[in-house]
Amino acid sequence: MDGPGAAAAAGAGPGPNNVPAFLTKLWTLVEDPDTDSLICWSPSGSSFHVLDQGQFSKEVLPKYFKHNNMASFVRQLNMYGFRKVVHLEQGGLVKPDRDDTEFQHPFFLRGQERLLENIKRKVTSPI
Prior knowledge:
There is one protein chain. The strands form 2 sheets. A 4-stranded antiparallel sheet has the order 1-2-6-3, covered by helices on one side. It has a two-stranded antiparallel ribbon with strand order 4-5. The longest helix is centred in the middle third of the chain and has 12 residues. Strand 1 and strand 2 form a beta hairpin. The protein is of the alpha+beta class. The protein contains 4 helices and 6 strands, in the order H-H-E-E-H-H-E-E-E-E. Helix content is 30%, strand content 13%.
C-alpha cells in the first residue's frame, strides 16, 4: 500500500499498536510527498522541517488535528520529547533566511516507523 495513509494504516509493526495518534499523524504528515513543500524530512532523515509555519498551520494542521494552532503543535512535539534543532555558525546563532523550523527526536527517523512505539509522552509531576 502506498500514499498518504499508508504509514498510518501500516501501524508500528506486528502486535498491538501502542503508538499515540499524534505520532502516527506526524509520521504520515512528514512521509506524505504532497506536504513536502511545508513539512518534510531533512536530507539525513534524522529530523524534519516545517518550512512555512503560517501556511502549514492554515493548510495542513486542520486536516490532521482539531486545530490550526502552531504553538499547540509545537507543545505536543515538546511533550513527546522532540527538540528544536538550532544551527550554530562560528559561535553565533545563524539568522534564518527563510521560515524553516527543524525538529528532532532520536526515535523519529526516516524509514524507521517501528521506532515510534519507543516515543513516550512526558509525565508531568504534580507541584
